[in-house]
Amino acid sequence: LPQGAGDDPRPRAYDDGFTARQAGKALEDNPFRADTSDHLAWEAGWSEAREQIVPAPRA
Questions:
Q1: What is d(CA 13, CA 42) in angstroms, rounded to the nearest whole number?
Q2: Which residue, among 39, 37, 40, 2, has the nearest Cα to 19 in the 3D structure?
Q3: Domain map (residue ranges) of the chain
Q4: What pLDDT digit, counting tens, does each position of 20-57 carry?
Q5: What angle do CA 16, 19, 20 make, to 5 degrees?
């Protein structure tokens, strides 16, 4: 997992999102209710994993 995971206020949800992306899960597979901090943390972890697997194009 990335070093940044420790900076997230919801590390477990962040880590779950990160590993979900690595396992091929879609962003829509987020198990948390949309209006919660866990939902946002899971999404942040998922997005971080996506960026590490497929780097964003350089400007």
A1: 5
A2: 2
A3: 3-53
A4: 999 999 999 999 999 999 999 999 999 999 988 655 45
A5: 80
